[in-house]
UniProtKB/TrEMBL annotation:
Record-given protein name: ABC transporter ATP-binding protein
Region span, Disordered: 227-277
Keywords of the record: ATP-binding, Nucleotide-binding, Transport
GO molecular function, one term: ATP binding
Originating organism: Catenulispora yoronensis
CDD domains on file: ABC_MJ0796_LolCDE_FtsE (cd03255)
Length: 277
């Protein structure tokens, strides 16, 4: 049985003005359970792609379907609802609310989604526990290290059990140890069935976290490489569940399993099969 795709773009183009398009006719399918990395230099269209998938922006032409919803057809309220229900996002600079405690930050998406208080608190406690940051529940984000803050952001992103986790340079502001920790977290999440789209400049992060990497140049997909990086190598493409795991995920803390190759060029990723488009 084949999984329904989690993300489908068909000839998606985004123009902001009269210049060349920020995204140029991108056709892309991402299976449920897959971890896809999107690489590209600054200005290549990565954020534009992310914004279209999250329904934060609409394509000028083409279609964008995520978890069975045509997000390009949603209005503002519909797209906000869709994000609350189906998308979790983490960012380079965490985007936590500094005047809320860790626990209250994690509870925000549940409150917006109208989850019952008891259920929300149980879910938050589970997530903070599995992410190893429960002792910081009452602290304010500024007291935490970068790696701990990113864990809080991950907990917040997972609160509503999103079908899709979007990670925008999630290790970009972290030292190498915390970055390895967050990379392991993404691997563990993906191993539990979470579909992840990871936007990064970092070839090594892409290689060690994802099963597949696409590269954007001037808004077009110029490479699409499957490789032996991410969790459960290959398993996610055929047999992962079509929605997010329903319980709080369990994470290994030792950061050991990441299969980090040196710093290969994209076509040199281990086990890669490359389709140049
Ligand atoms: N709101 C906007 N209005 C006009 N042009 C935009 C807008 N957003 C992005 N662009 C242009 O679209 C192109 C792609 O930008 P985008 O932000 O998607 O690239 P990126 O790969 O995410 O870059 P970075 O890695 O620096 O974040 C760039 O030429 C950028 O200047």
């Amino acid at each position: 049985m084949t999984n329904a795709p989690m993300i489908e773009l068909a000839e998606a183009t985004k123009r902001y003005d009269d210049g060349p398009p920020a995204l140029a006719g991108v056709t892309l399918t991402v299976a449920a359970g897959e971890c896809l990395a999107v690489l590209g230099h600054s200005g290549s269209g990565k954020s534009t792609l992310l914004n279209l998938i999250a329904g934060l922006d609409r394509p000028s032409s083409g279609t964008v379907t995520v978890d069975g919803t045509r997000v390009d057809q949603l209005g503002e309220a519909g797209s906000a609802r869709f994000r609350r229900a189906s998308i979790g996002m983490i960012f380079q600079f965490f985007n936590l609310l500094d005047d809320l405690t860790v626990l209250d930050n994690v509870l925000v998406p549940a409150q917006l989604a109208g989850m019952g208080k008891g259920e929300a608190r149980r879910r938050a406690a589970d997530l903070l526990g599995s992410l190893g940051i429960d002792r910081h529940a009452k602290a304010y984000p500024q007291r935490l290290s970068g790696g701990e803050r990113q864990r809080v952001a991950v907990a917040r992103a997972l609160m509503n059990r999103p079908a899709l986790l979007l990670a925008d340079e999630p290790t970009g502001a972290l030292d190498s140890r915390s970055a390895a920790d967050v990379r392991q977290l993404l691997l563990d999440l993906n191993a539990e069935g979470q579909t992840i789209l990871l936007v990064t400049h970092d070839v090594e992060l892409a290689a060690s976290t994802a099963h597949r990497t696409i590269e954007l140049v001037d808004g077009a997909v110029v490479r699409d490489v499957e490789h032996s990086g991410g969790a459960g190598d290959g398993a996610a493409r055929g047999s992962a569940p079509s929605s997010a795991p329903s319980s709080a995920p369990s994470f290994s803390r030792d950061g050991g399993a990441a299969n980090a190759p040196g710093l290969p060029g994209l076509s040199g990723l281990p086990g890669s099969t490359e389709a140049v488009r």
